[in-house]
Structure formats: C-alpha cells, structure tokens
Amino acid sequence: MPHERILSIQSHVVFGYVGGKAAVFPLQCLGYNVDVINTVNFSNHSGYGRMGGTKTTATELDAMFGALQQNGLLMSNRLLTGYIPGAEALFAVERIANKLKKEEQCLIYLLDPVMGDAGKLYVAPDVIPVYRRMLPLASIITPNWFEVEVLTEVSIKDMASLQQALRILHAKYHVPNVVISSIPLKPWLLAALPPPILPPISSEESEHLFCLASSTNGAGEDPGCPHPSRVHAACVPLLPGYFSGVGDLFSALVLAHFHPHISNQSSSPSSTTTPIDPVEQRSQSPRPPPKLTSSLTPLSYAASLALTKTHAILSKTYEQALSLPEDERQPSDDELDAKDLMRKVKRMRGRELALVEGQDIIRGIGLNADAVRWMGEWDAFWES
C-alpha cells in the first residue's frame, strides 16, 4: 500500500514542540508524507511570556493553496488542522478543506478546534461560528472539555449535559467521531463510570484524567442499536506540572492510527480477527488481544494507541525534567516569575516534549498489547 499523504495546517514555533512541531515529526515517524502550512511563525509558544514572529494572513494562505493547486501538489488523502488564530485565516482553511473533500471523496479530516482551555479563549472569538460551520466537514474532532462547551453551548456538569453535548456534535453537526481528552475526573463522572473503566484501586489516591471516544459507526441506524453512538473511555494518571503541545501530539497520533475501512470488530463473538493496519505493520504497534476485537471501533483503537503513546512521551518528558538543575525546576509563581523573566523560561524549556528522545515510543517499538491503555466500551453511557 502506498504511503499516505497528510496536509498539516497549524502553528509553527522555532524552539520547542507545539502545533506542527509536535505533530509532523510523529506523523513522519509513522510513515506518512506530511505537507506543512504554518498558520503562525513564532519563536516559541506563548507560555514563555515573550515571543516574536508573525501570523499568516488569509491572503498568504490563499496564495499558498492556489499555487499548490495550480502545480498539482494538493495530493493529500488526510487533512489535519490545528491552531488558527483568527476568522479570516480560518475561512481560508475552510475553503481548502471543502476543495479537498470534493476532490478526495475518502478524505480523512481531523479537525482540532484549538480555541482555549480551562475556561479561557486564546483565539479571537470570531473563530467560534466558523468552527461550528466547519464541523460537518470533519471525520474526527478532538476538542478539549472547554472547547466542547464552546462549540455546543452546553455547560457540562453532569451525565445529562455530557450526553446533550455529544448529541449536538453527532446529530446537529454530523461529526461521526469525537474524542475528548484531558477531562478532569470530577466526582459525578467518577460515580458514573463502570468498573472496567475506573482507575485501578491501587491508585485511588492519585489524580487522573479521563478520555472519551464517541463514534456513530452505524449506531442509531441499526434498530438493534438505538443509541446515537458507541462510547469508549479510559483513565490515565495525571502527571504534575504543565506541558505544552500535548493536544497537538495526541491529535496527530489519533489521525495516524485511524483507519475507518479496516474493522477492529469481529463478525461473531467467537472470532479472533485482529486489525490489519498498514501503519501498525510499519511501526510495530501492537494489535489488540482477540478478546477486545469485538468491542473496539476504529476510533477507540486509534485513541487507545494515541493515549498510550502520548502518556509515555509525557512520562519521559517529566522524568527528564526531574533530572535538570534545581533552578530549572522551580514551581510556578507569578510574582517571582515577574521579577525574574528567565525563571519562567528555564522552567518551560525543561518541559518541552521529549519527542526525539521518545521516537521509539512513537513508532511503537517494544510496545506490546498488554502495555496499551485499551479503551473500555461504556455500554450503558446513553442509559445513565
């Protein structure tokens, strides 16, 4: 099978690993050809407090898209979009997404609606209606908790509101695959989880984050499956401190491992069919054990590998940060950071994702099926 080609449209930084710098190298490690368009060109990410650079204008984006098209170079069968700071630039991206969808009927488009986190927008508010209009173009979206609330205008505070938000994304905006990562494991959510998805009893005292994957995958169309989607979930331990670029890495890995036409499901309970995944064969990533092949969807399979590899990269990054000199491991303190700007810089640069050091993790070398955080199916999600 020829190597697939991805068009990546997101931010670029000279130093560090966020946006395209967190996504392109992992995609290349997994055997993809990646064409890159930068929506911004910055020295570093904004967490450092100081940065220089420019935003790519809509006119510049249109010019690049036009030249690529004239030269017959828009050859991508996958599209990945991330941070786009303003509506005009996002309109330009929407135009190219529409064009690619028309020319490549089987285009797989992962839209990461990067807008903000922890209740705060870090893009212009005028991008919100554009993102809502773009949702039906997407094969997969990977919003965080806050971005789901912004897109759906639903405050998620209990199971009913979580269900409502997912219904809106699937039914109103016709998104077939939704992955929400880094969800705080709040008491109401923890109480609703079935035993197979709960954190291990031995780690009850540790903080965890929650990841949810919801795929229509024919659900709701089959009279025997009245629910709007199939939901899978997993919990992961929360590592101390702040890391940048995690969502960008995770989204890239979801796209890399997503193969909608290669079923991870068996046609009968006794079948031991496992997925035949060209990327997995090249990258030595494991196939799920037979007992899981009947429950995993293509989305939950991809999200499981993405979750496993992202957490392993984070763990490696955290371990490296702990080995740094003390003055590069100082805790966050706004007052002290304001007095000494390099205090924050040293802390941030010591926590840049260890992608190069962890490239074997990305490729899946040495990763066996037992080490994967396989997502469990939440059968009663829609009945809660």
From TrEMBL:
One of its GO terms (molecular function) is pyridoxal kinase activity. Belongs to the pyridoxine kinase family. Keywords: ATP-binding, Kinase, Nucleotide-binding, Transferase. This is pyridoxal kinase. Residues 93-181 form the Pyridoxamine kinase/Phosphomethylpyrimidine kinase domain. GO terms for cellular component: cytosol. NCBIfam families: pyridox_kin. Residues 266-275 have a biased composition (Low complexity). InterPro entries: PM/HMP-P_kinase-1, PyrdxlKinase, Ribokinase-like. It comes from Macrolepiota fuliginosa MF-IS2. One of its GO terms (biological process) is pyridoxal 5'-phosphate salvage.
